[in-house]
Amino acid sequence: MTTRPDVLEIGRGLPSWSLRVLVAATGAGVVGVLAATGLHGPVLWLIGLAAAATVGMPSSPAPMLVLLLTAMSVVATGTGVLGPMLVLVPLLHLMHVSCALAGLVPPGARVHLAALRVPALRFVGVQAAVFALAGLMALVPGGTTLPVLEFAALLGVAGIALLVAWLVHRPQ
Amino acid sequence: MIGPLGLPEHRMLRWAKAWRSQGTAGWRVSDALHRGVLGGLGLVVAGLVLHQPLLFLIGAPLLISAALGISVSGDPAVVVRRRTRLGEAGEAGRLAVTVDPGRGTELVALRMPVPGKGIGPVHLLPATATTVLARVRYDAWGEGLELRPDHLMAGPDGLVVYGPVVGAEARRLVLPPVSAAQPGPLPPRAAGLVGVHRSPRAGDGSEHRDIRPFQPGDRLRRVDWRVSLRAAAAAGGQLVPGTLHVRERHAEADADLVLVLDTRVDVGADLHTWADHEPGVVRAGGSLDTGVRAVTALAAGFLRQGDRVGLVDLGNPRLGVPPGSGRRQLERIRHQLVVCGRLAGWTTRPVLRPAQAPPGALVVVLSTFLDDAAVDVTVHTARRGNPVIAVDLLPRPLLPQRDTPWGEVVLRVLRAEQRVRRAALLGTGIPALTWNESAVSVMLRRLRRRRVAR
Questions:
Q1: Is A94 domain-assigned?
Q2: E strands, chain A, in order
Q3: Does the global pTM surpass 0.90?
Q4: Residue of B nearest to A129 (CA)
């Protein structure tokens, strides 16, 4: 056994289906939260089906479908910031990350916990920032927003979109 | 440019192909990045426009992750470290590959072997490890694929990927194991000069052969004075011609052993598996595996004794090894057995030419004797004057095929045929043995006693 950080001796690791179990758990969590907040009927069934498809095909459009259907449900129910629906923020992010990781390895692969350390730390960091923003949102008084401010926010989002597009398509 | 159908390829088609290949070569974005950018951005915009803070909060982490996860570059590579290509069965070792992950890479999906599972599964590892080690154990002998480091590199959260790339294959030759088989007394070569086997000829060995009257040319130190004086006393007390006697000793000679392996058939104990045999792969615990281990054990035992040992492949006469002695000969035979195992296959006519078995050499034929041709070859060799021992490699007990009502009947017919063939061998004076490590040496001692008695 070596102690050098740049030398890794392959051990047993976890089976690759453990990532699928994580995807399934987050999918079940999303469906559970929506059901608990009063969503019933065909939309909930549809989200459940999409979540089940996500477990089988993490690299398919199924996770995107879960995301969009959940967003539509959130709009339909119209809950506030600090409600039980806030649990959806880490759940959907975790589903997104675990789907991305599960899509990297074929069935029968072994997942070594050391590989998940950095993604886990990043997840915690991003969620901490988002929850800080949620806290700030809860503190800011509600009411009508100035049109100039709304226009600036949309410009900011467009700027972020352009930045991401440049990062994706820049020469490597 | 001419296309695959022989027609000129359109410029647009060429451009489309180039665009597509560009999308799959080098770093490329995964569907997770599309999800993060489109989903995240869409939710953030929708949250702002519809005044739904929760939508904004759901979209924000996806967008932040996407922004953090696309800063990768470089040309990642995986290189197998220099290693020996030769291994011994039962040995354990470690394989090492060097990973150059490139800048910004966070995850490496790398195929590496684990003990007992061939080239092994894909392992998801952190890209901080630039040297990846894997333990391996060589349970089976033969030549096989040992390592193929297929790999895929991924940026943060697997949003940008490089590959999958099929790794370069690394093969290893594992020699058959050498177990200790007891050597036995072989019939000496008529032309042999030195060795460990007692020759019927008179010579300079250590074993007593006879006492006879002195002849011109006999050495004086061979004179047996006690017998000579007794003879002189009987002749009146004078050492006259005819009373001087000499002691004669046996010559010592080396011997040839030719091991004939029938590689045409490789069967296991279960008849159900006889039909599904993969060519070029030796069945673990099957008849060919047993035969190869038996050949190695016998060759090692007799070569250690100083004898000359050769190998003949009944299925492929070009693959034999002519008789020789010494440790190198053992290595030569073990290497050749691996080649024989790889090229093993059915032929209707096994070949054992007179040139392959020198006159006087003991021939040990190792076969399953599932067809008459193997018996014919064995009998013809014995008729040429070589002492022959037949070793039956058929696994025991045989298990009938269960999924057919004819399984038990087939097994019974097979056993009956086998009995007839063994009886035919015994009828021509060829002992037929079932393989174990002392069977051949016991039989050789028995044959020697018979020779001496004659």
A1: yes
A2: 7-9, 14-15, 110-111
A3: no
A4: B61
